[in-house]
Amino acid sequence: MNYIQVYHTKSHIHGIGTFTPVRLKRGDVIGVSHANYDGQWYMTTHGYYNHSEHPNCIIEDRDNLKLIIALVDINAGEELTADYREQKDLEQPKEDWK
Predict the structure, then answer these.
(1) CA atoms within 13 A on the CB side of 81
(2) Angle CA 51–31–15, to nearest 5
(3) Cα–Cα distance measured from residue 36 to residue 64, given in angstroms and rounded to the nearest whole number
(4) Which site among 31, 68, 69, 87 is 20 to 30 Å from 5 CA-CA?
């Protein structure tokens, strides 16, 4: 499986975000966001996505990996976001998060 290279820069949502340098189509597997080893989740470079209540990506569990997948078509230069509430074993959004 080929993964999409991503880059990190200042986010208008919070701190640093993960961005795509290429246009993505709905269903594209962007990469591994987290890997589980001995019961502990470890974040990869693809895992620095920010929370959104209107995300453009979903996180899908496959064995000991969490894949970040385009939920909609995403333009080059757009920030990758996911709804943290759908990932109960990872950080949950705070009250003031959008």
Answers:
(1) 20
(2) 35
(3) 5
(4) 87
> What pLDDT sits at residue 96?
65
Long-range contacts of 2-11 (CB under 8 A, 24+ apart): 3/29, 3/30, 3/31, 3/32, 3/46, 4/28, 4/30, 4/31, 6/30, 6/31, 6/45, 6/46, 6/80, 8/45, 8/48, 11/50, 11/79
The end-to-end CA distance of the chain, in Å, is: 33
Q: Which residues of the chain have pLDDT under 50?
A: none
pLDDT of amino acid 97: 60
Record the tokens describing residue 15, joined without a space: 């701190």
